[in-house]
Design goal:
The chain is mainly α and about 150 residues long. The chain folds into two domains: about 55 residues, no CATH class; about 80 residues, Winged helix-like DNA-binding domain superfamily/Winged helix DNA-binding domain (Arc Repressor Mutant, subunit A, Orthogonal Bundle). Helices cover about 60% and strands about 10% of the residues. It has seven helices and three strands, in the order H-H-H-H-E-H-H-E-E-H. A three-stranded antiparallel β-sheet has the order 1-3-2. The mean pLDDT is about 80.
């Protein structure tokens, strides 16, 4: 790959200033239709090539990962954010939800109850004081075990 710093701000400003001044002087004279803008075209094409190379490399890296978009579309925004907690721990409490979203404890308990009704969470410890929740097992398997 060519110089990865091609679009670094200092270099970009220096190139742009040089090309702009030369381009401006070219465009201001009467024979602008015959102006030589080869340097600008080379600069532009090189930038496009570098951009596409980066996109290609990123696509190669991502091609091995599984597509979870169909699962994620079925979740609301809070549920998607909640998945971050489940990456590090298997069970959560309503206090974890309250802390994560900066909600009042009562709001977090209500949210957890709603998620149980929707099937997003299941109750794994039904005690009143320290009720614990876990991600729905089917969803957990699809997201974290590689079986889509």
């Amino acid at each position: 790959m060519a110089n990865s710093n091609y679009y670094d701000v200092p270099n970009q400003k220096r190139r742009f200033n040089f090309l702009s001044k030369n381009k401006l002087s070219l465009l201001l004279f009467i024979g602008r239709a015959e102006a030589d803008i080869t340097n600008w075209i080379e600069y532009f094409i090189t930038g496009v090539r570098i951009s596409f190379e980066k996109v290609y490399e990123k696509a190669k890296l991502e091609s091995g990962s599984k597509d979870l978009s169909h699962i994620m579309r079925g979740l609301d925004i809070k549920q998607r954010k909640m998945l971050q907690i489940f990456e590090n721990q298997k069970t959560i409490t309503s206090n974890d939800i309250a802390e994560f979203f900066n909600f009042a404890p009562r709001t977090a308990r209500k949210l957890a109850q709603d998620w149980v009704k929707e099937g997003f969470l299941i109750i794994v410890d039904s005690s009143k004081k320290a009720r614990k929740y876990q991600l729905n097992q089917e969803l957990e398997q699809k997201l974290y075990s590689g079986n889509v």
